[in-house]
Amino acid sequence: MKNLLLILFLFLSSIFYAQFTEPTKNHVITEMDGDVVIDWYSENDTIPIPTTELEEFFLALDTLETQDSIKTVLIKQLEKQIEFHLELNDHNRNLLLYRDQEIELLNNQIDLHLDHLNQVDKWYKKPWTGAVGILLLLHVVDYTLPQ
Q1: pLDDT at residue number 94
Q2: Mean pLDDT across the stretch 78-92?
Q3: 57 & 116 share domain
Q4: H or E segment at 8?
């Protein structure tokens, strides 16, 4: 029991000693990257900043915020423009593929037409042309013979 009271007394005395040893220091608790940081500072550590410098700082900060918002809008517009160009590129690629298919189909149609022309009988190979030719020959010979 004595040991327990001794530990309790030492614990309480260390807490009171820590609170009264630095009465002029204040502490600031900040959070940086998920870690809690406790900074101790005294009033002698602060530096007075002239109001003109403070106004210039806040004016510069406002300017930077404005520039940041403008650049954010520009970035969004440029990203949208990139999307449109990629879509246009896809459309052009599809058009070229369709044009190539059209050229191939037209070449096939030309080949089929040429094959059709080769299969169709020529006019001079038809039987009626021989009969007409013989009649014309007789008619020409009839005019050339004396009467």
Answers
A1: 97
A2: 97
A3: yes
A4: helix 2-21
Q: Based on the structure, what is the number of domains in the chain?
A: 2
CB 41 within 8 A of CB 26: yes
Residue 112 and residue 101 in one domain: yes
Confidence of residue 77 (pLDDT cuts 50, 70, 90): very high
32-41 pLDDT, tens per residue? 555 555 556 5
Please name the amino acid found at residue 98.
Answer: Y
- The mean per-residue pLDDT over the stretch 80-108 comes to 97
**pLDDT > 90: what percent of the chain?**
37
Distance CA 35, CA 33 (A): 6
**Same-domain pairing of 64 and 101:** yes
Examine the domain organization and report whether 60 and 108 are in the same domain.
Answer: yes
Instruction: Write the DSSP string, 35-99.
Output: EEEEEEEEGGG-----HHHHHHHHHHHHHHHHHHHHHHHHHHHHHHHHHHHHHHHHHHHHHHHHH
* Cβ contacts of 129 within 8 Å, gap of 6 or more: 123
- Residue 12's domain comprises 1-46
